[in-house]
Amino acid sequence: MIKKSISVRELVEFTFVHEDITPSSNAEAMLAGTMSHQARQSKLDDNYISEYSIISSFIYDDYDLGIIGRMDAFCDSISCATIEEIKLCNKDDPPKDPIPRHIWQAYTYAAMLYNNRPDQKCVEVVLNYCDKEGNICSSFKEKLSREQANDLIYELIIPYVNFLHQEAEHL
Fold first, then answer.
1. φ, ψ of residue 106 in degrees (nearest 5)
2. pTM of the complete model
3. Is 20 left (phi over 0), alpha (psi -120 to 50) or beta?
């Protein structure tokens, strides 16, 4: 078994190659994104944990893929946990639909949570596009079953492991 570690962000970016998850060409844009996250997180109730770290291992073919990440916000509940991804947006033109590379981060966290918790009954993913003050401009919510989350994570893992095999053949 070959062990390989990858972050949630790297795994999602592998599939959604066209651009960075949070395109920022300058320090000002990066700071605005950080401010938006912190402002939104400060508005969450006490049931939420900000910047919740998670590690989970998935086996595919001859790889043991260790996926590492940090949820923007997490409300822990065995009955139905909530994972919130926070993205900065222009408040005058928020996304009308979830941007795939953004929602897939949340899907990946859901699969990781299910993988780590055999008794987890439900996971709700929430993708909130917020302005710099942490106000929600558009929001997308979806409950995922264990089976759905597992199917989704392997849509990312299989092409990535296939790439690793091709890369190894050329070394």
1. -65, -40
2. 0.91
3. beta
